[in-house]
Amino acid sequence: MASEATYFVYVLCNNAGTTYTGIALDVNARLESHNAGTGAKFTRGRGPWRVIHTEGPLPHGDALRREMAIKKDRKFKAVLKTSSY
Question: What is the pTM of this model?
Answer without folding.
Answer: 0.91
